[in-house]
Amino acid sequence: MSVRNLYRKAGMGIGAAALAVGLWSFSDDLFQISKNLDVFASVYKEVNLNYVDDINSAKMVKTGVDAMLSGLDPYTEFVPESEIEDYKLHYVSTQYGGIGTSIFTRNGKVYVSEVFEGFPAQKADIRPGDQIVKINDIELTSRNNEQVSQLLKGSKGAGIKIQLKRGDAPAFEKSLVREEIKQPNVSYYGIVDGNIGYIKLDKFLENSADEVTNALTNLKKSNPTGIVLDLRSNGGGILQEAVKIVNLFVQKDVEVVSQKGKIREKNFTYRTVTQPVEGNLPLVVLVNGRSASASEIVAGALQDLDRAVVIGQRSYGKGLVQQTFSLPYSSLVKITIAKYFIPSGRCVQALDYAHRKDDGSVVKMADSSLHEFKTRSGRSVYDGSGVFPDVPVKQERFADVTQTLISKLLIYDYANDYRAGHQKIPAAKAFTLTDAEYADFVKYLSSKNYTYSTASEKILTALKTEAAKDKQYAELQPELEALRNKLSSTKKNDLQVHKTEIKQVLENEIAARYYYEKGRYEANFKYDKEMAQAVKTLQDRPLLASILKGEGNYRIIGKPQTTLAAARLDGDAR
Known about the structure:
GO biological process, one term: proteolysis
Structural class: alpha+beta
GO molecular function: endopeptidase activity; serine-type peptidase activity
CATH architecture of the largest domain: Alpha-Beta Complex
Helix content: 40-55%
Largest sheet: 6 strands, antiparallel
CATH superfamily of the largest domain: 2-enoyl-CoA Hydratase, Chain A, domain 1
Radius of gyration: 29 Å
Keywords: Hydrolase, Protease, Serine protease
Number of domains: 4
Number of strands: 23
CATH topology of the largest domain: 2-enoyl-CoA Hydratase, Chain A, domain 1
Protein name: PDZ domain-containing protein
CATH class of the largest domain: Alpha Beta
Distance between the termini: 64 Å
């Protein structure tokens, strides 16, 4: 027998053995699935029959399914029939029938928190701070936000009667007709300093690309010198919308993103399909730590293609693709089916859900596992760490006093009082609180309780606790008390020390009372450091060209050690 035939015969034997092993493995998988489903059903049956109290079957099963999926990633989730409408509103479309308000509960009462411009509530002069007492004669006592929202929503064209109370005035009633409420994906666009076009995109849901196209088309009528696409705090959404938005700025037939998973049929590469609306105008994309998923596809693809300068902070790092699958009884499951890869070949996923610690906690991608990739012009970029900005801008944290005034709703309340006492204010872009008005706000706070602990005070408290544990407190007490008194004395000046940022939040809130969400943006532009850097970069053409060519310090974008040192993955940016 020839050597060739020996190898051929051996190969056939190996192939048959491999097939046998594969069939056995597949059969074993089926047995394990059948076994575990049988165990699950049996446990449920016995608990349902024998548990001492009545159980909520639907809630119990959902708890079990949620626990099963929790070991995968935060984006793989089960949606029961009862939550389908809320799911569609959050992930697919922002369209519903209503009056155009958002609400919140406070001390057991329901208040209007925001009014959307152009909808029934705004037309009827319903304002933030108004208490909603009744809806269609239904008392709202003990009802939560979700229950009240359901009462406000209804069919387009249906009437609704609302009883309200404003301040100390008697209750009054408004009769409105519900309209189709469609919250825009583009919450603001306009021309800012330097004749630069600005587009704020909040989410990637239905029609996001159409809205950005409309904004871009209208901005071009003003012959802008550049465009800023603001994706800060945009948690993402529909991948295809991201591809369409990249196509607005990139030539036809360019790869934008590819998705790759274990099911080959679901692997796909998305390319641009039309000529761009604006392929040459200088472009900046703003991102921060809560820019995720589809936002990272847009920012990362435009960076990889050297089409835009990315400014801000490192993005969240979600490089996973989900797909929904219909289940019986109108429920569904959303499953992570793939990772996505942007043009340089990198995946931005920053958390490694497949390799958890023994306690179940998730770890960031290790330094050693990060790889270098190249943009179209040869700049170095890295995977496993989100999208790192070409021009980093440190994110400023509000002082403890400012955060407290916001969280205790004191700035919100003062804005309502200001609106009640001032019929109009200048245009939002020009609106500034005078020193006398700020002094009035400080006086307003003098009768309010807004106690808070500064970072220094928290450290001092911890030091006192440790000193007590070590039995050294008695010895250190004089120094610790002196330091506490010093900190307390310094704290009294916080309203003046942090005046600029408190004024920023105040002006933002007050402008919204007159000019709604657009007013918030326009009042805040003068304080926005990332926006200022974007304008500066777009106006400095040599700098812009240097960044995109990767000259000097711009040759490497986010070295691994820098990226991981700056990593902040707090919160779920879904």
